């Protein structure tokens, strides 16, 4: 083998090793991009809000971070309070993903739809993420 052939083989080996190192860097970049936790990667998630040991008022309004999600004095609601279960609950499908420590929930007793008084007001609501087989759910116990 001549010196010229040996130089070509060494140069080729060096280039091949550089290319293979470059591939490892891109795969590690991809892994770090995919490393967000499941809940942080979602734009919406199902919620279940349980009212432990109490019953919702007959006519209620539920506000989450200042936005009314249920007002039982208004017809055609997207979400409802399930009073047939124990504990009573609210299920919200495809609702936004909250941030821990930044969740405020108010439940307002609307009486006969002419008055209102605060039933529950919590501006630091804790929640847990329950991972199911097909999807995750935010679980809140008030």
Overview of this protein structure:
The protein is of the alpha+beta class. The strands form two sheets. A five-stranded mixed β-sheet has the order 4-5-1-9-8, with no helix packed on it. A hairpin with a 7-residue loop joins β6 and β7. It is elongated and about 100 Å long. About 9% of the residues have low confidence.
- End-to-end gap: 81 Å
Q: Spatial order of the strands in the main sheet?
A: 4-5-1-9-8
Radius of gyration, in Å, reads: 28 Å
| Overall strand count | 9
Main sheet properties: 5 strands, mixed
Helical segment count? 1
H/E series, N to C?
Answer: HEEEEEEEEE
Mean pLDDT across residues? 81
* Quaternary assembly: single chain
The global form is: elongated
Helix content class: 10-25%
Q: List low-pLDDT spans.
A: 23-35
Roughly what fraction of the amino acids lie in strands? 35-45%
Summary, kept brief:
The chain has about 140 residues and is α+β, with helices and mostly antiparallel strands.
């Amino acid at each position: 083998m001549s010196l010229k052939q040996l130089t070509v083989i060494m140069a080729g080996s060096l280039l091949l090793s550089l290319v293979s190192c470059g591939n490892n860097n891109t795969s590690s970049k991809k892994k770090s991009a995919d490393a967000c936790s499941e809940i942080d990667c979602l734009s919406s998630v199902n919620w279940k809000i349980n009212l432990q040991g109490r019953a919702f008022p007959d006519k209620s309004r539920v506000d989450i971070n200042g936005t009314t999600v249920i007002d039982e004095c208004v017809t055609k609601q997207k979400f409802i309070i399930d009073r047939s279960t124990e504990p009573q609950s609210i299920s919200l499908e495809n609702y936004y993903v909250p941030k821990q420590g930044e969740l405020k929930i108010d439940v307002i007793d609307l009486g006969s739809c002419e008055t209102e008084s605060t039933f529950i007001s919590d501006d630091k609501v804790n929640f847990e993420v329950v991972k199911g087989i097909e999807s995750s759910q935010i679980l809140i116990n008030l």
